[in-house]
Structures are given as C-alpha cells and as structure tokens.
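Encoded backbone
================
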Amino acid sequence: MHVTDLDVDGAAMKFVEFSRIFDQLFTSPSEPASAIAPEATAPPALHGAGLTVLVEGRDADLADQLEADARHVAGVDQSGTPLPAAVLDAAHLVRGYRVDVGVVDDAMGRVARWYPLCARTGSYAIRRPGKPPVTIDAGPDEGHVKASTLTQDRTDERHHYVHQALFGWSLAAPPPGRTIGEDNLPQVPEPDLSPDFPLDTTFRPRRGSLPALRYGRYRLRAPLVDLAGNGPGIDADTPPSAVTQALTYGRWEPVPPPAVVPRWPFLEGE
C-alpha cells in the first residue's frame, strides 16, 4: 500500500503520449530526408492530485474473491466437491471503508483531529412520471468506499478494469460546479433515474467536515463498514498500525518564470 500526492494516472498518460511522439519522431518520420531530431527536450511535467492510496495486486485479490463467491453460489469447494453449507468468515461482512484524514501537528508529531471524508448531507426525492415529487427527510450521514470496484468493457463483457487507487478527495459527494455534457457545453449533472426505483439523490459534503488541503503532512485511516452500514465513529481510538505513515503534501507543478515588467517606457533603439 502506498500513499501519494502525485496524479499517477495523468503522469502515466502523459509519458505514454510522450513515448509515442518520440517513437514517431525517430522511427517513422513522414519525410525521412527532412526529418530533424531535436537537440534537447524535457519530459512532461508532473502534477498533484490530492491524496491517493494505491494498493498493489488489487486485481488478483478481486479475481480470487470473484472465484470464491462463485463457489459459494454453486455450493462447492476449491476442488469442486459439493459442500453441505457455504463457509463464510468476517471478510464477507465488510461492505467498504469510511476514510478519515488527519493533519499532523509538527509540535506533537501526531494527528490532533480526524476529519471524515465520507460525511455528507443528502437530499432524497421519489420522482414518478406525471406525479409530483415526494421528498424524504433524512439527516446527515456518512457514505462509504466500496471494498472492491471495477468497470466493465462495453465491447467485451468478459473484460474488467480494476483501478489500483482506492480513494482520493471527497468520497461521498461530487465536487461543486458543472460538467461537460455530450454537446460539449457545461451543464449541471443530473442523476439517472431507474423507472423501477425512481429515487433522486443529491449529496454535498457536510459543512466543516473537510479540511483545507494545504502544503503540510497528513495521515489517513479507513475503518471498516459492515453490511448494515455500521462502523467506528470519528472519535474512536485507532491503533498506530491502522494509520498510514505521514505524507508530506507538496507541489509537483513547475514554477513558471517571473514576469519581467519594465519600470519606464522603452526608448528608441532599446
């Protein structure tokens, strides 16, 4: 498990494109007689992306979990022998994680206060076609990060993609602002409603729950959430082994050169 403040996905895509351009430049120029290689060049600049936890081997772990679940459904063990009953353990009760972040106090060398990244305030309404919406009153709560998530290839349902990053920024509410729609124009995102279960939900972070991300040192923890949504509270004690090492959040973006502004008008010939 690794904690980083680097935009790993963005850096990977930039270097892939950088390598592709180099390959075209040196191996397959459009006009070999006029091709000129640059004397010097620089790799793409790296950028930060908040705090991200990376877990190696999640794809293999998830594949093993899918195989085990398939055996439980079929009622057989690893050798294919029928079982009288499925064998389950505590891991099958894990629904996900609730992630907390803490700012390391340099004077004390530890986290003085934890902030929940899954705290949210939701609005719920049932919207049936041709009928007025029915609102549902609910107080603030905490969401969770799924223990295992994947995306499926639309062209081949046998192919799945497992992201190695567990979480990054606010985890239970979308960032403020609009998104780019299919017509390439900004728009307010609207949730997709199922005709069988037309529940419209919108979430926003609970006021005061997210600390300002500044240059400094941070630690993360991720208490478990069971199938009923229960888990330790924000004030629960956490053993040191369940907390990440302190990460210094810094700046990856290159510093632009200073702007040179003349103090008086230029004279003729200057």
